[in-house]
Amino acid sequence: MTDNRQTHFGFQTVDEDQKAGMVHQVFSSVASKYDVMNDLMSVGIHRVWKTAMMDWLAPRDGQHLLDVAGGTGDVAFRFLDRAPGARVTVCDMTESMLVEGRKRADAVDKADRLAWVTGDAMALPFADNSFDRYTISFGIRNVTRIPDALTEAYRVLKPGGRLVVLEFSQIPVPAMQWAYDRYSFNVIPAMGQAVTGDRDSYQYLVESIRKFPDQGSFAQLIRDAGFGRVQWRNLSMGIAALHSGWKL
Ligand SMILES: C[S@@+](CC[C@H](N)C(=O)[O-])C[C@H]1O[C@@H](n2cnc3c(N)ncnc32)[C@H](O)[C@@H]1O
Question: What's the CA-to-centroid distance between 196 and ligand 1, angstroms?
Answer without folding.
Answer: 18
